[in-house]
Amino acid sequence: xxxxxxxxxxxxxxxxxxxxxxxxxxxxxxxxxxxxxxxxxxxxxxxxxxxxxxxxxxxxxxxxxxxxxxxxxxxxxxxxxxxxxxxxxxxxxxxxxxxxxxxxxxxxxxxxxxxxxxxxxxxxxxxxxxxxxxxxxxxxxxxxxxxxxxxxxxxxxxxxxxxxxxxxxxxxxxxxxxxxxxxxxxxxxxxxxxxxxxxxxxxxxxxxxxxxxxxxxxxxxxxxxxxxxxxxxxxxxxxxxxxxxxxxxxxxxxxxxxxxxxxxxxxxxxxxxxxxxxxxxxxxxxxxxxxxxxxxxxxxxxxxxxxxxxxxxxxxxxxxxxxxxxxxxxxxxxxxxxxxxxxxxxxxxxxxxxxxxxxxxxxxxxxxxxxxxxxxxxxxxxxxxxxxxxxx
Amino acid sequence: xxxxxxxxxxxxxxxxxxxxxxxxxxxxxxxxxxxxxxxxxxxxxxxxxxxxxxxxxxxxxxxxxxxxxxxxxxxxxxxxxxxxxxxxxxxxxxxxxxxxxxxxxxxxxxxxxxxxxxxxxxxxxxxxxxxxxxxxxxxxxxxxxxxxxxxxxxxxxxxxxxxxxxxxxxxxxxxxxxxxxxxxxxxxxxxxxxxxxxxxxxxxxxxxxxxxxxxxxxxxxxxxxxxxxxxxxxxxxxxxxxxxxxxxxxxxxxxxxxxxxxxxxxxxxxxxxxxxxxxxxxxxxxxxxxxxxxxxxxxxxxxxxxxxxxxxxxxxxxxxxxxxxxxxxxxxxxxxxxxxxxxxxxxxxxxxxxxxxxxxxxxxxxxxxxxxxxxxxxxxxxxxxxxxxxxxxxxxxxxx
Lengths: 392, 400
Hints:
Chain A is of the alpha/beta class.
């Protein structure tokens, strides 16, 4: 069995920090989650729950984000809890933490304090606005981060006018972005610490991730349009002939691509070569762009006669791009996903056996141990304190 | 300067967005990235603009945005000698990235099976819309396709309106970002075991895994969650409110009693606050509450309103526009924006890598390359080629 040889202490709640921890746990790192005694991670309370019955041991969000981890209940604000935390830190390679900047330092557990105890420790701090800068103490939930990053202002893309208010992205996607940046930087820090390419040994370090920055970076290809034109790109996508949303039989949706003559020709053939599509104004990119509203109307007249699935395969068979807009049900039923191992069944003592979305990075020469379910609150407290020879 | 990936060499067959995105981030972490490209079929990001084909391959700002800090070698892979030279370059490298349509690298004799023969501990990343296996592997996919198949389009937008395919870069960017992570996983395993890896990454799967929590409702209850705009299942207020400037919106979210008290204080203790004493009441009368908060926002700029609310511990941020971000004091103080010179585009502001590592800082190590600008240096220093041979290859349009 292969596994990342790293012990990770996760002092983080909800999505961003725990996703960072999950990304390492998915590759076999020993991730020890520190949870508030008697309450645990906030994600335990968010759901979704089976039949909508709240149960902190069976929240879908928590279950997904905490597979393969161990849980220890520890209050780092008590002297005993703090002592145990420091013992854990001595054995650790990484600390992932999401406290507001300065909170841990006030407890004597800031980066400088911990580096004295363990100079090889990588501390990865993931907060809304990072460790420095005028907004470092500002609060932000997912909604606020989406809007503060520049991404929200561009959604919903294709708004008919600016009276449609800007909108956040799906789920907690922005918080996942923060966790992804954290995990990537953590591995870079570990790689360097452990000798990089040439085996010259490095030290631990402090990794400062601002979720707002991570999300802003992801929107660089749109944000740069301000540098080009001196005008803010916004959520109205009028007149841009790139793609179109179409409605299919039964009210399902799909997307078709209109970005080039070649894409158009495949789509046109899939529609059965309608005459209007070969005649002006619809026979050129410019003509279609100038008559975009009418084009969309005609595309929808056709798309409503076929199912989402029929449209998808018909256009792809002609060599052009198109895709079904999938609900969760559509995702679970997509054969391509199933065939490639996109789902993994994990048995949990309270939630039972459920199909989870699998880790999409699957290196060919790594033989990972079987997936373990998210831990019950404090499930490994005794085990871990025993490892530290601190049995209560 | 110390960098985490010092000495790591990447041969980059990436084009368009997701691939180049990944290798640019590897460059910011210190890797040497050599982009293989050809004038015979230039990277779409050089050659295409929103308005059609461009005259100058060096003037595309979108190419600039995702190719900073790389070297460029021109090599025509449709020639046999071109392919042989590409293989020789791979033999000197640690990582290969490609995001051609599945099957193309095999046709060129440059797939993992062939490349691992010249570099046994090679790490190779292949990115595609649906993955390199399965019935849909050959299907074409642009960004809106994988945000759609990945489940995010259905969950974006307002409940009563149609789904939204998001912007035309978020899906590529996330696929590229996940590939950076994948490269780091592979490098760490190679450091521990000496083994290389092949990673076949599906952009649709990557996107879907980043809303994996939203998929749990189906796993548990057979239900598909629906999009819900700016709202939250239990929190209120949780919305955007129009402020005084043109198209200025402020996001406000209140998650607990303390934050509610902070909001009431920031709004000057209005009498109506007493009608919204508990979280369930606030949620039940959300529209009413939103109207009252909107009335407070309407004569304030969104930056002013953010500071007033944050001073009372309330999560409030403007819905920043691109121009705001490039001039925001916090963004500038953290070095999230940097000026980079480019021989054709001039001096431009761009966005830096989103992690600050205290010992091995990331950096934009150079501008976006002119097509083929490093060809001579790379072939001379890495392959020991002499000037005469180089001239022959150029004349034969192998180096082209």
